Amino acid sequence: PPDIEFPHPIFDINFHPVQPMIAAGLIDGSVRIYSYSVDGNKLLHQFDHHKKSCRAVTFSLDGQSLNTASKDKSICLVNIETGKVHLSFLKAHSSPIYTMRTIEEHLIASGDDDGFVKIWDLRKKGKCIMEVKENNDFIADFDYVGNSKTLLAASGDGVLSVFHVGQRKLIEKSDNQESELLCVSVIKGGHKVVCGTGDGIINIYSWDQWGDMSDRFPGHPMSVDTCTKISENVICTGSMDGMIRAVSIHPNRLLGVLGDHGDFPIEKLRVSNFNLLASCAHDAKIKFWD
Q: To the nearest 10°, the Cα dihedral for 76, 120, 108, 196?
């Protein structure tokens, strides 16, 4: 598909789980949903329910609603058929929300600028069923493993926190790595976890051995701001230098540069269920990569 250009910088993007649609949350607080195809892209919806920048967008697993979170501390659920907000928590956090993820059909996780993590049960009109603060800086990214109900939270304080969602408690925290953890992905069939850092190193952890990392892979000249799993052995990374790279883990090597956004830092990478990669950067564009 061709690029999608926006009037303002983009904080987050996410693919619809079933339809060829992508959502974007913008710095001006607006949220837009586009359909995409090789023949062109079409704006389907625009929402303006947030008062400040929209920092996170994530579809429900069935794709019927879009969950949005904002610097204004609110979380809203939008029905994408009607375009109406059908559930909102205006003071979901006491600090600006930094990231959010749909983890199960009725559960979403949110993390804020001060290190709080909350789990919300949407069946109970959005009841918060878990609230923990194990980190001292912003929660940058989540990953989730459903069969073990394990939520991983990467934080700007350099610590990876691991939670059991069913038991609603902390399992363990990593040692402080003294560099911001900016993104997290579970790979190798659940045996390894990778985190991108502020100093351009990829930290590699072995599952259930959370204290110290098992390996580290330097090689990015600037911070690794976002990453996404392409296969069990390969991730794509987005860096402050505007480059999107394919990286093999064990064996650790840079496979090459997929593309770039010029000199604009990469904000987010996402992969659709149809193996299409999308990127957004500070140039206010979404680009697609096969």
A: 110
- What is the residue-averaged pLDDT of the chain? 96
The pairing of strands 97-104 and 116-121 is unpaired
What DSSP letter does each residue of 136-196 carry, written as one string? Answer: SS-EEEEEEEGGGTEEEEEETTS-EEEEETTTTEEEEEPPP-SS-EEEEEEEGGGTEEEEE
DSSP tag of 114: T
The last residue of a domain, from among 133, 161, 192 = 133
Query: Quick one: 125 and 141 in the same domain?
Result: no
Angle at 111 between CA 109 and CA 116, to 5 degrees: 115
176 in the same domain as 35: no
| Per-residue pLDDT tens over the stretch 177-225 | 889 999 999 999 999 999 999 999 999 999 999 999 999 999 999 999 9
With 0.90 as the threshold, say if the pTM is over it: yes
Residue 126 has pLDDT above 90, yes or no: no
Do 255 and 186 lie in one domain? The reply is: yes
**87-109 b/e (C-beta count within 10 Å ≥ 16 → b):** eebeebbeebbbbbbbbbeebbb
**If you ran DSSP here, which 8-state letter would residue 265 be given?**
P
Instruction: Give the whole-angstrom CA distance, residue 222 versus residue 289.
Output: 22
Per residue in 4-54, pLDDT tens?
999 999 999 999 999 999 999 999 999 999 999 999 999 999 999 999 999
**Three-state DSSP class for 96?**
coil
- CA–chain centroid gap for 16, Å, is 14
